[in-house]
Structure formats: structure tokens, C-alpha cells
Amino acid sequence: MTPVRTRPLLAAALALAFAAPALAADPIKVGLALDISGPFAAGGAETRDAINLAIRLLDNKLGGYPAEFIQADTAGSPDQAKQIVDRFIQQNKIDFFTGPVPSNVALAVGPALFAAKVPFITANPGPSQYAGAQCNPYFFGQSYQNDTWDEAAGQWASDQGLKSAFILAPNYPAGRDHLTGFKRTYKGNVVAEVYGKVGQLDYAAELAQIRAAKPEAVFFFLPGAMGINFIKQFVASGLSKDVRLVTNPASADEDTIAAVGEPMLGLFSTSQWSHDLPNAANQKFVSEFRKAYKRYPTFYAAQAYDAILAMDAAARDVKGDVKNKEAVLKALKAANFQSIRGPFKYGNNNFPIQDYYLRVIGKDAEGKITNKTLSTPLKGYRDAYWQQCKLK
Predict the structure, then answer these.
(1) Residues with Cβ within 8 Å of residue 178, at least 6 apart in sequence
(2) Residue 58: its pLDDT value, please?
(3) Where is the signal peptide, in residue numbers (predicted)?
């Protein structure tokens, strides 16, 4: 009688093993290289907080499967980030990667991740190299391509009839991309293109140059403390009475507003996301973030939250079998999640085709200084580099 009873049990066990391979597998592992200290710490903290919120709302799972999230601080250093990624790959055997804020870190860690076939779903940087000739099937620039914010800003400045602009950014890959984007769509005269040091806090020399150049507008990309100090010094100098200040969310989001206050009023910026977008997914995110952290989220937080949603959707689509790399890439490309920014899909280069919004900083009904969305200068917009990418 024994064989009669055990064969069905053995068959059932084998059937379960083949039907649900992920059930007995290790948890899905996600490497989070975060810039918690260093010059990009403000964005790093926002990234961390949004990821932790998403993890909690997903009950520490991706696609319904157990997940492990391994965090480390890069301090904004490419060399330190490379060491972290090597450890993530060799020791932790990660299945997904996200986290860094600056483009130079993304460019530094990309080669190791691509060689190991680990999908890199960016929570912020969108370097032009990865959008064009160096595009890679394992890089998903789900936030934005660096130039695109500023292409929207250049378009808006042109539409406003601003005939001359002084443009300013730190001298590193993202800084160069952002100013390139502005110049691509701005139809006026760029009177000066100035690159400062990463981490620079004193802008007396640049303010003197602006005063001498007498532009109608100043466009700048100065994330974190750089932007905070520049805006304070710009307004204190009296230049804001005659010169229109235009930027992107790196210097015009809720963290900068909290640090600067009243001098931010009237500042225009362009972004692919804003906390007042009316879609249901965004309103849920903003509500949960404010409940957890007692403040409005920034674009860093929004992008990081979407990055986890992208992983969650992909893990669900492959039924937890994240070792099937081809299936995972296909699932990530499908983007079967509700982005909090609104309409969203990937182009051939794995960078978004999405809308870009114009915002202005003012006071809401409660008297709180915050961003308000005004219009959509670019709709269904894709970056300028996609034709250089050989992916389909």
C-alpha cells in the first residue's frame, strides 16, 4: 500500500516545485546605493525616505514575493559607489539596483552592473551617454533624461519672449547636460555659459558677471546647497527686481523652499512631476508621504517611489523569477505600473516618453510656500538622443 500513497504525494511535490519556482527561492535582492552624506545628501535623504515608504506599503515584497533591500551610503563619491556596487554584485547577489543621485556616480557604476546583468532602474540621474550611443538594455532611465527638464525651460523662456539668458551649472556631467538641454530649445541669446565647482556655496563672482551682462533671464541648475545659497544671494543682491530666474526642480522643489523661504516666491521651474498633479496614484503617494514624514515630497522622492513600483511590476510579471534576465528586461520595458507623474512609457533607449510641466512657487490657501503647476510646455516628449541608441 505504501507505493500507492506516496506516488501522488511525490508527484504533487514535484508539480509544486516546477509550478512555483520562486516559492523556495531566496528573496528578491535590491541594492540601494544612496547619497546620504556628501554634496547630494538632501536628494539622497529624499530618495531613502521614498524607498522606505514604498517598501512599507508593499509589505517588504516585490510583486508579492519576499524582498530584501540592502542600503549603503556612497557619500556622492563615484569611487565609493563602485566599491559598494562590487560588493552588492559579488556578495549580496542583487537582482535590481537603484539609488544614486548624481550622474557621475551612475556613469561610474554602470559598467559593473551591466556586465553582471543587473538591471539599473535609476531613481534620478539620466546621463546623455546612456540615452544615446552608450545605451544599454540593463539601464532604465525611468526618472528623466538630464536635458529634458531644461528643454522644457528653454521652450517656455522662448515662448515668454525672454531675449537673453545667462546660464549657470556645476562642472560635472549632469551640469553640462542640463545647460545643453536649455540651449537646444531656447531661441534667445545666451550671453554667458558659466560652470562652477561642485559644492560651491559663494556666488559673488557669478552675481557680478550677471550684473555686468544684464540678461533678461538667468537659467541655472544647482542642486542641493548650491542652489539654496545661489537663490539667497541672487535675491539679496537685488538682481531679482530686473532679471527673471528660471530653473528645474533640482533647485525649486520643497526641500529648497523649506531652506530658503520667501525669496523663492515667483520662481519658475519645469519638471516631469509635481505634488499637485491630480492623478489618483500621485495623490495617494503625496498623502502617504506627508503622513509619514510631515512634509511634501520632492521630485527625488517621486522618482525613487516610481523606481520601486517599476521593480514591483516587473517582479509580478515574471512571477518572482527574477533570475530570468530576458523576461525581467521585457517586464521592465512594459512598465506595467501606474506612474505617479501621469502618462509614461519607455522609448527604444529605455528613457521615458512623458509630459513636462511648468510650475511657479507661490502661497497655497493655507499660506504655505509651495509649487503650483501652471501648464504643460512639452507633451509626450522624448529626449534628443534616442536615435543614437541601437536598442529597439
Answers:
(1) 146, 147, 149, 150, 169, 221, 248
(2) 98
(3) 1-24
